[in-house]
Amino acid sequence: MTYLSAMRPEEILTPTPSGVCCQTGGFHIDPTRPVDKAVITHGHSDHARPGHGAVLATQETLDLMRLRYGENFAGSTQAAIPGETLTLGGAKVTFHPAGHVLGSAQVAVECKGLKIVASGDYKDAPDPTCAPFELVPCDVFITEATFGLPVFRHGDTSGEIAKLLHSVAVFPERAHLVGAYSLGKAQRVMALIRKAGYDKPIYLHGAMEKITNYYVSRGIDLGELRPVRGADKTELAGAIALCPPSALQDVWTRRFPDPLPCFASGWMRVRARARQRGVEFPLVISDHADWDGLTTTIAATGASEIWVTHGQEDALVHWCKARGLRARPLAIVGYGDEEESGGGAEGGSGETPAAQP
Amino acid sequence: MNKFAKLLDRLAYEPGRNNKLRLIADYLRTTPDPERGFALAALTGALSFQHAKSGLIRTLIAERTDPVLFELSYDYVGDLSETVALMWPADPAKRPNAIPSLSDVIETLSTLGKAQLPSQLARWLDGLDETGRWALLKLVTGGLRIGVSARLAKTAAASLGGKEPNEVEILWPGLAPPFTELFAWLEGRADMPVSRDPAPFRPAMLAHAIEEADFAGLDPKDFSAEWKWDGIRVQAVAGNDENGEMVTRLYSRTGEDISKSFPDLAEALRMPGSIDGELLIVRDGHVQSFNVLQQRLNRKAVTPKLLQEFPAHLRAYDLLVDGTEDLRELPFADRRKRLQSFIEKLNNLRIDLSPLIPFDTWDELTAARANPSKAGTDSEAVEGVMLKRRDAVYVPGRPKGLWWKWKRDPLVVDAVLMYAQRGHGKRSSYYSDYTFGVWTNGEAGDQLVPVGKAYFGSTDEELQKIDRFVRNNTIERFGPVRVVTHDPDKGLVFEVAFEGLQRSTRHKSGLAMRFPRISRLRWDKPPREADRLEGLEKILTKIETGRSARPSLVGEG
């Protein structure tokens, strides 16, 4: 695509340290501080924060924010329907599925013939718990780079689930505790376990119950689920239990017989990450696009300019420039956290203090 | 290869010794010969093909990836083999029909010419998945590092036949991959294998480091003491082959044949037997410091000049075999008597007896350790005291409570953190590799000059605390290196312990530390109170002139 006007993309969406701002539309996308009007891509806490005046997001994202932050998480809300275009001031705004978690969306902003897509977090891999990623051709593509290094290739999830079920068979006396972010990853892992034919009850940490119940209420079948709370030790031998990653090192694990700490995350691809977290059984399952996913998506959008929000932006910006694309890192503070890159990026996108037991 | 790769992958994450044993034993039980034998060889470090250099691996990946992306990835992952395994472009069109087995790989490697290695390696990498590539690269570069000791792997093998690990250990030097006779014996299908080597290595007995608290439970009457010499531990073995010819060999502590590097010493053992001792450089009857031995070890070619300048010497600690009689089942006190007469009979200036330290109480021994000048002018080559139970038989490995080592206190210096880098391996997300310096006069007054590098992280909490300090006090970045604030009033002081000093033209300070490690964090100390280069130079001069009692820059507190 070519620019129909002499308008610079920065005049439509202006990057600021607390998120991108659309002056003409009068809104921010995923702002990290309270604003009058916020457009939210998905429910993870580093993108969806409480305290905004008005929030525009998909119904699922609004529901999830309400579950996490309470009824008064925003002054007013409006549900966006994917594929339907809204006019906000001088800008046209359309939501498109991002394939990241339930309700996740990309936000396309169009103004005077120039189209910018803010993709939030996304993945192009199949996920039985949310609508698949939709490719939106555009002039400027705003992408994440959580796994923006060519060492991150997430591979096939069925192989990882098979490895887990094999271990359950080999160590039938041990409980397999799977650390997974409580919004999205946990439900996806459970759905994949069911798909692989495992039909025993799956046990849930208390912090996961609310969001998991919401997924089930939206028609996602996760089989028989039981709370860990109240189950006795012998019952938990050979069981699979899902918990927030932080619980893997917690005294909470003492109720299990010889627990095996597993962790489902894209970070598990790198051994040092897994070991730093005390993980003994890594499962490479990610809700973010891997290197191949990022680069194919960028190329397929046809965008001539790429903005990179967070993660390993250096490598992705380098890759873009080597292909003649204009590219820049946005340096937004608060999406993921460089200091916590051993899981914090995803950790930020699923864990809130309120979600702890 | 895939089954072995999966085993390695699982072992690398499994912290429990018993679970590791279970995983290895299960693999050995369910895998056929010769595949399992080669796996056992890989786990015990018994493979002897020419290892691929990391330069070759770098070249292979450079031909296939963008150099900037490679460097960023390597910096992030912190391990070359793993980076390459993950980045390797998996082109389905290039995938060969058969996945290589571990036996294929090892047998091919042992005969492969150097010129064919790169293309062969690339073909294998094309045929494997991430885990397989990782295992293959670990194998060909010779560094599995998965937290499995040779001892643990042998223990797992022994468990197949319900045998004691030491039974395998004693047979081990006479065996070779793929160990089919060992497995046949373990599974009760054949007799115990017999060694026909006239001068075999016998697994060495090692000591535990003693702690203050250990002394309370020990009676000085039960122990002999001798100096711990600072050379390299060796085993000198001589025996007659089938033709009555004397075969002599010198082995390192781990059983590596090092006869070729020390022909002057190997030929000195002219009587059948096996001596466990320390290799030292002795000039005019005086043992030289490890610095001097290091100079001989650094030279690749063994020239007449080298032999003359750095004459090798064996200080004998123990006698394992006398003639053809195995003495290892005798108590230490009895072996010591046999050693004494063996050395007398041998009557060779290059081989002498390690003297015992007379003592009746721990206090007397403490005094002797504090002042090894009683060992004569050789005291600079003493690195501590060894304690051996008089009734201890010679047991391979590191049995608890029989032998103790009691090292001398290290030298210490207070130095200031100057640069930090992310660590490798387990520490790869943390700034855990530190360069530290001491003060010296510069053009503009006092300035810090780097004197050494060490990593740190005895506890996660400390590691995180320094990591945070580094990230919050970075003043500049050079690639992966962060320059950390190091002003007289603001910075972090480390107490650094080290074993010795050497002159070095590679370092700006002109000296290099031996085994530096961070012994304490001095959050309380302002950098201006750290030590000075002049102080280190004084220690170095003392070491070189052999006059030093143990000098130290740092007082207590």
Oligomer: heterodimer
- Counted up, domains of chain A total 2
Mean pLDDT of chain A: 89
CATH architecture of the largest domain in chain A: 4-Layer Sandwich
How many β-strands of chain B, per DSSP? 20
CATH superfamily of the largest domain in chain B: DNA ligase/mRNA capping enzyme
Low-pLDDT runs of 5+ residues of chain A are 337-357
| Count of individual helical segments of chain B | 19
CATH class of the largest domain in chain B: Alpha Beta
CATH-defined fold name of the largest domain in chain A: Metallo-beta-lactamase, Chain A
Q: Total number of β-strand segments of chain A? A: 19
Provide the spatial order of strands within the biggest beta sheet of chain A. Answer: 7-8-9-10-11-18-19
Draw up the topology in text.
The complex is a heterodimer of chains A (357) and B (557).
Chain A: H1 9-12, E1 14-16, E2 19-22, E3 27-29, E4 37-39, E5 52-57, H2 59-69, E6 74-79, E7 85-88, E8 91-97, E9 105-111, E10 114-118, E11 140-145, H3 157-170, E12 176-179, H4 185-195, E13 202-204, H5 209-217, E14 225-227, H6 233-236, E15 240-243, E16 260-264, H7 271-276, E17 281-283, H8 291-301, E18 305-311, H9 313-322, E19 326-329, H10 344-348
Parallel strand pairs in A: 3-4, 4-5, 5-6, 10-11, 11-18, 12-15, 12-16, 13-14, 13-15, 16-17, 18-19
Antiparallel strand pairs in A: 1-2, 2-3, 7-8, 8-9, 9-10
Chain B: H1 2-13, H2 17-30, H3 35-44, H4 54-62, H5 67-77, H6 80-87, H7 102-111, H8 117-127, H9 130-141, H10 150-160, H11 165-171, H12 180-186, E1 208-209, E2 223-229, E3 232-240, E4 246-252, H13 263-266, E5 273-283, E6 286-287, H14 290-298, H15 304-309, E7 312-322, E8 325-326, H16 332-346, E9 351-353, H17 362-370, E10 382-389, E11 403-407, E12 411-422, E13 431-442, E14 445-455, H18 460-472, E15 474-478, E16 481-484, E17 493-498, E18 500-503, E19 511-514, E20 517-522, H19 533-545
Parallel strand pairs in B: 1-11, 7-9
Antiparallel strand pairs in B: 2-10, 3-4, 3-5, 5-6, 5-7, 7-8, 10-11, 12-13, 12-16, 12-17, 13-14, 15-16, 17-20, 18-19
